[in-house]
Amino acid sequence: MKQLLVNFLQRQGFIEIASSLPEFSFCFHLETQYVNVVHLIDYKDGLYIPTDQYELLKSKIVDFFAEKNLKEIHILSLIFSNDISKAETLKGQDRFCWIIDTGTKELVTGDAAVEDFYGMKRQFLTFLDNPQVLGAPLEELEPEQETQKKQSFLMSDNKDRIPFINIMIVSLNVLLFIMCTFTGNLLYNIGMLTGPQTLVTGEYYRLFTSMFLHMNVDHLVNNMMILLFLGNMVEKTAGHVRYLIIYLAAGLGGGLASIGYQSFLGITNDSLGASGAVFGLFGALLFFAIINKGKIQSLSLGRVSFVIAFSLYIGFTATNVDNAAHVGGVISGFIMALVIYVFGRIFRFGKLHQNKDK
Can you tell me the distance from the alpha carbon of 340 to that of 352, in angstroms, rounded to the nearest whole number? Predict the structure, then answer.
């Protein structure tokens, strides 16, 4: 019956977000100032859900929308079960939770529960009068449209999101460069990447600090101009925390690639700059374009691929450029975007354990 109700809600304009477990999903409808969410739990025989796990599910849904700058989130849980007492135990004192008796096809709200949820009680009662008809599978074209709407929301071009993390990163790079002009080689000696010696001496922090140091004004301006453009785009697409993770992971990956390449050649060169992390943003954009069916914001998959190839070509034909860091950055940025995307889908609703009732 859960899938029938999902079909019914989709006809009302809701979008379904599935979890890695078929028993749990939610459907949402974006309004002007808020989002309405119907949280669906198929509480089958043999499935046991602790109350704290139920609360975790709802908190994960709040986090999901909060990451997309949606602050007003209204959630109604629907528990599908033929064991009302078992469902009531799970529900606890949650006023925003109703139960659908799968045996009698009745809606059980309870005395302490809210009377209605934005007019949806009447819709649920109408659905339960004839679920097989009103919840019939959607027409062939609609699933494709539903997928496109869902992907658009999951990786949306949120033009209203202020990329403050990227602005802070650019500001930090500029501030440190200004400090370097007054301190001479002090910060460079402390923070630049000293090739394979970084690992030999155990000064692993240089993998991080070298990302924020630049040798001269041209070096700084070139990296910051690209970072302002790419960073704003990636942060608006992925969100603030995800962007910071991608940026740092790409920078560290670029630094490790640089050290590894130098070790392979048996040479030692000092290196510094944000280019490894910047190239990582190219890699992240490439991944976003792939999962968005070939386009991300105003860039197509072909354009992103061309810019990456052209930028790498410029690096390989120039002198005094750490190309290994660029390549490592691209790969690290792509992989980290992939990891965040996959883990976000797997763990969005937390883990539940299926046990026998005792």
Answer: 21
Secondary structure (3-state) at 74: strand
C-alpha dihedral sign at 201, 273, 335, 165: positive
CATH 3.30.430.20 assigned to domain 164-344? The reply is no
- Confirm if 121 and 127 have CB atoms less than 8 A apart: no
What is the pLDDT tens value at each position of the chain, 358 positions in all? 788 888 888 888 888 887 767 788 888 888 767 888 999 988 888 788 888 888 888 888 888 888 777 778 899 999 998 888 888 888 888 889 999 988 888 888 888 888 888 888 888 888 888 888 777 775 543 444 545 444 444 444 455 568 889 999 999 999 999 999 888 888 888 888 887 888 888 889 999 999 999 888 988 988 898 898 888 888 888 888 899 999 999 999 999 999 988 888 888 888 888 888 999 998 898 888 887 765 555 555 666 666 677 666 666 656 677 888 889 999 999 999 999 888 765 444 333 333 333 3
H helices, E strands: number in the chain: 15, 8
Q: Which residues, 6 or more positions from 173, have their beta carbon under 8 angstroms from its beta carbon?
A: 212, 214, 220, 223, 224, 227, 274
Q: How many CB atoms within 10 Å of residue 180?
A: 19
Nearest in space to 31 (alpha carbons), one of 68, 76, 70, 5:
70
Nearest-5° Cα angle at 26, 20 to 30: 130
Tokens 């079909």 belong to residue: 7
Q: What is the spatial distance between Cα 308 and Cα 190, in angstroms, rounded to a whole number?
A: 31
Q: What is each CA distance from 35 to 39, 61, 76, 153, 211, in whole angstroms? A: 12, 11, 11, 12, 39
**Model-level pTM greater than 0.85?**
no
